[in-house]
Amino acid sequence: MSDVKVFDYFKYLLSPVILATQAYGLWLGGDYAWLGLAMLVGVLCLDAFLDRDYSMRDQHYVRIYDTICAVTVLATFANIFFYAWLVGHDHFTTTSSEIGAFLTTLFVGFVIGAPPVHELFHREEIVLRWLGRIGQCLVYDPWREITHVVTHHMRVATPDDPDYARRGDTVYGHFVRTFPRQWAEAYHLEKMMWTKRGRKWYDPRNAWVYKALVLVVFTGILFALGGFKGALLAVLSLLFGPRMLLEVFNYVNHYGLISATPGRFEKHHTWNHITPLTRILALEITNHAGHHEDSYKPFYKLEPDPTGPVQPPFLLCVILAFVPPLFFMMIKPLLKEWDETRATEPEREIARRENARAGWHELNEPTAINVAVRA
Fold this sequence. Notes:
About 65% of the residues lie in helices and about 0% in strands. Helix 7 (about 145-155) crosses helix 8 (about 170-195). The protein is built from 15 helices and no strands. The radius of gyration is 21 Å and the shape is globular. The chain has helices at about 5-10, 15-30, 35-45, 60-90, 95-120, 125-135, 145-155, 170-195, 205-255, 275-280, 290-295, 315-320, 325-340, 345-360, 370-375. By secondary structure, it is an all-alpha fold.
């Protein structure tokens, strides 16, 4: 027992604590509706000043991690239902409380609710994977798993990945491209399955059909609890929060990186955010190289890569993404360093073409250090 790192397990209770704080603030109403968001932002701001954490997690009692993960998904469901009910009963009587409740539900839903859903639909255990699939209602897209698990993990860092942002892309252009491509790819993959099995598109055994039914039931519960207004605001909080911001996450975490070997992932093919509190809240998904090496490996078994490419604090990257000139100022030096020190020669050649296409010719100019080395 002496070698058990008990605190490793308690760390992940931070997410349920933030969800409980959100629910308490919503219940109190008034300006307390901002309470959950204030706590979340405070934690992320503190995280920005902490050193990177490359430690491995204790694995003596891994079911504790799984239990916390499952509880977080269930608590996120409870919070969105609670929010819809409060809205439907005119609980938020001021403009400030209405905005605070909406934004809190939106951002907490993304930072706290989405990671365990992603974690669980990658699992091989039936019950946990089922909960993850049902949990996709919390991003209001029960089909999101289809392209993510298949296409994204096979084609990461290539233009064939619908989640990928090429050099020069803004996050707004990324939205316009990624959503239609995801939907088209999901339809294509599902059609292959039902055609192969000789089924009609509406056969209830097809995955997309029961996923649609699950979403209808979920929306019906929101409507039953909160009426039209409660259901509408709850759905909008999910669409503009977890659903849209997930694509900001993809935009940031894979931006501009290049693979010359599609289907064979290398650790330098994704950015990482290794600060301690971000690792905890995101259930290690920001320890991204480990996840892409083996997408079925539970979050507590992921091994951080101390030599992998990293970005500034996650919260800063997400904020900068919405201001393209500032995001480009941040990402260009990182990409230049990646091209010169991490990319393979075939990847370096692709990067040169990508830089030229984006108009980022300065990235193709070698640094003084590299010029001296080559000389």
